[in-house]
Amino acid sequence: MPATSSSPIACCRFGASYSPQAVIKYLKDRGYERVPSNGGHQQYQNAEGHKVPVPVHGTKKIQDRLLSKMARQLGMQPKDFRRELDRYA
Closest Cα to residue 20, out of 47, 48, 45, 40? Predict the structure, then answer.
C-alpha cells in the first residue's frame, strides 16, 4: 500500500540523506552554538553543555544510520528527528 499524506510514514524520508547544513540550522534554532573542535566534525553545544557532533565533509550528505544516532544523542526518536529535519531540507 503506498504512503499517503495521512500516513505516518509519508512525513519522513526514511533511507534519505540530509545535508549537514540542515542539521546545523536545526541545532541553531534550538539554542546550540558551534564550539571549537578538530577534524571533519563540527561540535554544537547547548546552554546545558550537551554536545552534538555534526560531520561536515564537503558536499557529502549525512546518511540515515548516522541521523538515527544523532537523534538518540538529542533524546529524540529517529522518526521525529527526520520529521523535524524535513522542514530544513
Answer: 40
